[in-house]
Specification:
Blueprint: H1 2-24, H2 28-49, H3 57-60, H4 67-104, H5 111-136, H6 149-171, H7 173-179, E1 186-194, E2 204-214, E3 217-225, H8 227-230, H9 261-274, E4 282-286, H10 288-298, E5 301-303, E6 308-310, H11 315-326, H12 336-351, H13 355-370, E7 374-378, H14 381-390, E8 402-410, E9 420-430, E10 436-446, E11 460-469, E12 473-478, H15 500-507, E13 510-511, E14 518-522, E15 525-534, E16 539-547, H16 554-558, E17 563-569, E18 579-585, E19 590-595, E20 601-603, E21 606-612, E22 617-625
Parallel strand pairs: 1-4, 8-17, 9-18
Antiparallel strand pairs: 1-2, 2-3, 4-7, 5-6, 8-11, 9-10, 10-16, 11-15, 12-16, 13-14, 14-15, 17-22, 18-21, 19-22, 20-21
Length: about 625
């Protein structure tokens, strides 16, 4: 039996390997044949072991000397499921090959039709992959031959990621259909935001693109510098006060003032219309971080007309230098290199022949969405609801308990956010009466000053906004700069229009007399705003101390009940991720009886959380009275 099982297992593994190789070589008939042979071999091996009875396998896992029988059965079962998953995956790869061949011949490819054709095989593959993964979890690594253990561990690590990507694709099918124009022609305004010059939704808008898509076919993708349409703006609108330091008139390149992306996206659509542009159905933002992720997968791209080769490592400094100083002064189109690179990148993606690379591209793009390096906004309410549900909208999130979001807006601070390291410390102190005092410190360290690039050696000028629970009471603030710039124009006399959202925000501002901190409300939060400057090779720390608008119900806890504390830490869109050190200090009379996962670590009466805000973070705990 042992010899038969080993023989069939080896045959199944060999056929799986040959199936994958055939798929990569686009020999799809041979690939399907090998997947079928792998399934038959794994099934024969499993049948040999079936004499033990399926109910015994879990027991054998714990019997010394016999666990290999259990591991062997589950490994064969996993192989059988993977072979069955490979059959629909090979059909998908064949569809992809046909699409790429048609694209190479100049045909317009409908991504929507392609997605519809692969829907059923993808669902079939997902069922088998999940079943195979469950079987794989029951295999003891010690029962795997030593020379195969590294491959086994690699597959075990990567498989959940792949399954998650396939599952996410299935869940977002309705969203993809709408985005790709399955319900009619769609026009999207792309905003290319530079997160080395931070703005509220991800960075300064240096370039934009317009894309037309219908029934899954991209009809047009046009990239241009942002100041070209801005030069056609006839409307005169008063900018937010902070923006007035650099712009006398509000326009598209400064439109992303509000951290709540749907609000800023509507401003961008409005300004683009006022420049004579068409009405967009939605707005999509991208940061250089996304381009880096894609270049890391695709590899270097050569731009012979500029004498440049761009890769993931040199992308930002090389492109930035070309935009700032290396462009053709007579042609005077500094952002043209970015437009040319974007077009080349899109062409490369469509012409790829390697399914593994395409998977990695999809993974990188989803990662960019999850990290808010890509934001989506659609005017269609049902589609926007799907975007919100996926967590890709860049919306300021509601929170019933504690909340913190640190928002930077670089005003004439060059590209220095690219060399700023930031640490955020959040400390919640629960008093004996249940009241909660929060202390937030934000430390920014400037690593520039000695770089070969002038734009990294300047002072970082930042209008800092800290979003906390609505109704929070500021107790003290320090570290900011007392600065209240005068308006550059008499806007009333000159007949400028005032934006209703900006007016609502600014009319409610109160000034803390001791620190000069602006205190107001926006997006259902209380906001603390101040100017903060940090010079090269220096650090600055800003601190806010405030009382939360809710308390822990100590009375209910004393009577045998419970209450909770939770905090949502929302990263700024486009940020590469600040270091976060959070802690909760509780009085002696209460103790946590539950907490979120293992991310809160106790140190006496203090519970600590340390993480990087590459995505949003959440922590919470439930309290009861200390048992005597």
């Amino acid at each position: 039996m042992k010899q038969s099982v080993i023989h069939n297992g080896a045959s199944g593994y060999e056929n799986l390997t040959l199936a994958v190789e055939s798929m990569q070589a686009e020999r799809f008939g041979g690939s399907l044949s090998h997947f079928n042979e792998a399934y038959q071999a794994f099934s024969r091996g499993a049948d040999d072991l079936s004499v033990w009875g399926s109910s015994l396998f879990d027991l054998l896992r714990f019997v010394p000397g016999l666990s290999k029988i259990s591991s062997g059965q589950y490994a064969l079962e996993a192989g059988r499921h993977f072979a069955l998953a490979g059959i629909p995956l090979a059909r998908i790869a064949e569809e992809l090959s046909f699409s790429k061949e048609a694209y190479a011949q100049g045909e317009k490819i409908s991504l929507l039709n392609f997605l519809k054709r692969i829907r059923m095989p993808l669902e079939e593959a997902l069922v088998e992959l999940e079943a195979g993964n469950q079987a794989l979890e029951r295999v003891d690594i010690r029962d795997i031959p030593e020379e195969k253990q590294d491959q086994f561990l690699s597959m075990k690590r990567n498989l959940p990621t792949f399954i998650g990507l396939v599952r996410s694709f299935n869940q977002q099918e309705a969203l993809l259909e709408e985005l790709l124009g399955g319900n009619g022609p769609r026009k999207y305004l792309f905003l290319l935001q530079n997160n080395h010059e931070m703005r509220a939704t991800g960075g300064f808008i240096g370039s934009y693109a317009l894309m037309d898509v219908n029934d899954g076919v991209v009809r047009r993708f046009f990239v241009d510098g942002i100041f070209n349409p801005d030069g056609q703006l006839k409307e005169k609108i008063v900018p937010p006060k902070a923006i007035q330091k650099v712009s006398t008139n509000w326009s598209l390149h400064d439109s992303n003032w509000f951290p709540d992306f749907p609000v800023s996206a509507e401003k961008a659509i409005f300004f683009y219309e006022k420049t004579g542009g068409p009405t967009a159905d939605g707005v999509i933002t991208l940061t250089p971080t996304v381009m880096q992720k894609l270049l890391a997968v695709i590899g270097p791209m050569t731009l012979p007309q500029y004498g440049l080769t761009v890769d993931a490592d040199n992308f930002i400094p090389v492109i930035q230098e070309q935009v700032e100083v290396g462009y053709d002064k007579e042609e005077n189109q500094p952002k043209k290199v970015l437009a040319d690179l974007t077009a080349l990148l899109i062409e490369k993606v469509f012409s790829l022949q390697d399914e593994t690379t395409l998977y990695k591209i999809a993974e990188a793009f989803v990662e960019g969405l999850d990290e808010k390096q890509v934001l989506l906004y659609m005017r269609h309410d049902e589609t926007q609801a799907l975007i919100d549900e996926a967590g890709w909208s860049g919306r300021i999130l509601p929170a019933s308990k504690d909340y913190l979001s640190v928002i930077h807006t670089n005003i004439n601070g060059y590209k220095t956010d690219g060399v700023i390291d930031e640490t955020i410390r959040h400390r919640a102190e629960i008093g004996t009466d249940g009241s909660i005092i929060d202390i937030v410190t934000i430390t920014r360290t400037h690593r520039g000053g000695h770089t070969p690039y002038e734009w990294w050696n300047k002072v970082n000028a930042d209008y800092l906004r800290v979003y906390v629970p609505e109704g929070s009471e500021l107790l003290s603030a320090k570290g900011g700069t007392w600065e209240f710039p005068e308006a550059p124009l008499d806007y009333t006399a000159l007949g400028f229009r005032r934006d209703a959202d900006v007016e609502l925000e600014e009319s409610g501002i109160l000034i803390d007399e001791k620190s000069g901190t602006r205190v107001y409300r926006d997006a259902g939060k209380t906001v603390f705003g101040a100017w903060v400057y940090v010079s090269p090779q220096e650090s600055v720390t800003v601190e806010y101390r405030y009382r939360l608008p809710f308390t822990i119900d100590m009375g209910a806890i004393r009577q045998g009940g419970a209450d909770s504390y939770a905090a949502l830490y929302q990263k700024q869109s486009g940020s590469i991720g600040s270091r976060l050190f959070a802690s909760v200090i509780v009085p002696d009379s209460i103790e946590p009886i539950w907490q979120t996962g293992e991310n809160l670590i106790p140190y006496g009466r203090e519970w600590k959380l340390e993480t990087k805000l590459s995505t949003d973070a959440f922590a919470g705990m439930v309290f009861s009275a200390v048992k005597k």
